Amino acid sequence: MSIETFEFVGTRGNRLSGKIETPEVTPRGWALLAHCFTCGKDSLAAVRVSRALARAGIGVLRFDFSGLGDSDGDFADATFSADVDDLVMAASAMGKAGKPLSLLVGHSFGGAAAIAAAARIPGITAVATISAPADVQHVLRHFDPAALERVLAEGEADVQLGERPFHMRRAFIDDMVRHDIEATLASLGRPLLVMHAPLDAVVGIDHASRLFQAAKHPKSFISLDGADHLLTHREDADYAAEMIAAWASSYLPQIVADLPQVQPAEGVSAVETKNGLFQVQISSGKHRLLADEPASVGGLDSGLSPYELVSAGLAACTLMTMRLYAERKGFPLQRAHVVVKHGKQPDMTPSDRFSRTITLDGPLDEEQRQKLLSIAERCPVDLTLVRGSDVQTRLAGEPTDVTLV
User: Fold this and answer.
1) CA separation for the pair 364, 234 (Å, rounded)
2) Which site in 128, 212, 280, 379 is 20 to 30 Å from 57, CA atoms measured?
3) pTM (2 decimals)?
4) Cβ proximity of 328 and 301 under 8 Å
5) From CA 310, how far away is CA 391, in angstroms rounded?
6) Which of 53, 57, 125 shows the shortest CA–CA distance to 91?
7) Which residues contact 229 (CB under 8 A, 6 or more apart)?
8) Class for the domain spanning 269-387
9) Is 3.40.50.1820 the CATH classification of the domain at 2-248?
10) How far apart (Å, rounded) are the C-alpha atoms in residues 239 and 367?
């Protein structure tokens, strides 16, 4: 995956700094992650969940709320409303950058903010929360009561959260009463995934029950057994991200290329030649070719291996799609060349990676080159690999009720 800095202007006109985790494959969709209270975009949970989602094919933006990390602003001016507004601004900025959001993920206090923001971002199709409170005032329970009294009496004061000092203004407390997360959920109209650890000592499991009860279907709950509130153990963060990716796949938008579709395979036959251990003759209509494995694994090396054939399909489809697009747009593309490699990545789920290198010849300007690259990532075979496919198998002679359209 690749990581790039992403900056945009927040609600108050200040610069907010984030990072985009881009998958190595064509993104199945784009997500926005809201970090926990005072944590920042580079907290263990934010980084690990974002990267695990990227490995699963979902691009993610994580950014520092105002006054935290690399973002401008004064944390003393922070309110829950301002954080929600900045999530909305982040969604707008991502849309303008050609990365429209479809998924909101929020951790802890950020989970409540994600729910509130989802109601204001039309493109959001699903929301996932991790260890989120059912009411935003819950965060006040973690401050010294005497310090909160000083804030209320004097308008502002220094407060302690754990071992970290913060300057808080009364506006932060007053803003809390304006938000009813459970009421927002009741009218949200978006699929919701609630993830929570039964023994969470910071935000109790009862908050997960309240969120789940308030939400309308479709809704799901996944227990983060043994995890702590901040997901400090990598395996817990990875598990949470993998579950979010699997759950969200049903709600991510379909990736559709704005080009004519290539013809489907109406019937490709493969039969053993009995020449060597692996050699296979492949035929489709009047076309014939051999498939085989390299001599290093016992083959005759007389044809492309199965994964090379898949790679060949991706490479050919990429070239055809770019050519159709270039002809339609009148781009001066003289010739294109594509190299596709296949490998296994043990830290990815699924582990297959197709790496594609494209060479474009001709007097193309930078905008034309980028558009051809973008359309290449949406060629029909690419979309088939990214989305996954249904494979039906039966023995010859057995009846089938499966109709391929």
Assistant:
1) 45
2) 212
3) 0.66
4) no
5) 15
6) 125
7) 108, 131, 197, 200, 201, 202, 203
8) alpha beta
9) yes
10) 39
